[in-house]
Amino acid sequence: MWETHRTRAEMFHAGMTRRQITALVRAGELIRARRDHYLPADAPDAVVRAVRVGGRLTCLSLLEMLGVFVLENSRLHVHLTPSSSRMRSPHNRKKRLDLSKPHGTRLHWEVLPEDPGNATCVDIVVALAQAMICQSPRAAVASLDSALNKKLLTEAQVPEVFALVPARYSALRPLIDGRSQSGPETFVRLILRALGCTFDLQVEFDDVGFVDLVVDGWLVIECDSRQHHSDWAQQLKDYRRDLALARRGYAVLRLTAQDIMHRPDEVMQAIAGLTARNGR
């Protein structure tokens, strides 16, 4: 299992010989991530690179690998213990990592609540706590929503996440809602909250199904991503859903994920214009 790595000494203790270990590496059944540290062949690339550095995968890199929403990330996030040494480049186990210029690697030196042992990744609670600090507040809320929605985090664990971050982050706790099924949906929810609108999430209509948000009892907002709405068949289905909602007296505002995440001011102005015109 790639969730843990094995050292050469542990493999010797299990009865393997140096020749057997070398043969497994040459056959592609083992990966020598760094000197005396081995992973199975199915280990994800991000995990291999984190172990090669000398630590374990964490923060935004781990969340991305698990399918948890992350607004953006271009670095490999690696957790190291305070006693870690002899760090290596994530791309070359023979090249020493320059700590003054880690080149696309974000090192986290925090002390973990529990000894990680040979784990290749930190616990999801730790990863989310670190991601709160590495992201903007709205992106941090979206990541927590996503982890809850995917059942990678439980409601009972949410206080554990906040216990690992500075007290100022406690202001985000009331904003978390695991019903949000995407990061853009969380962002729109936060916009609606800022505007003082009333809203509900994941509302079901007969012959329509679930919609992302219903605002002030009359406006349906759908958050569309390119991944799920790019082909004509899906777009036609969406238009017919909109017609069915219109027959029930609902207006529909479709927003793209790109606009929600990267042009939030314009999205807020659009929602504010609609709600103001209709009695707010």
Describe the structure.
With 280 residues, the chain is an alpha+beta fold. The protein has 2 domains: 45-172, no CATH class; 183-277, Endonuclease, Chain A. 41% of the residues lie in helices and 19% in strands. It has 12 helices and 12 strands. It has helices at 8-13, 18-26, 45-53, 59-66, 124-134, 137-149, 158-163, 183-195, 226-229, 232-247, 257-262, 264-277, and strands at residues 6-7, 30-34, 37-40, 56-57, 76-79, 88-89, 92-96, 105-108, 199-205, 209-215, 219-224, 251-256. It has a 4-stranded mixed beta sheet, with helices on both faces. Helix 8 (183-195) crosses helix 12. The protein is elongated and about 75 Å long. The chain starts with 5 loop residues before the first strand and ends with a helix. The relative contact order is 0.09. This is Restriction endonuclease type II-like domain-containing protein. It comes from Microbacterium trichothecenolyticum (Aureobacterium trichothecenolyticum).
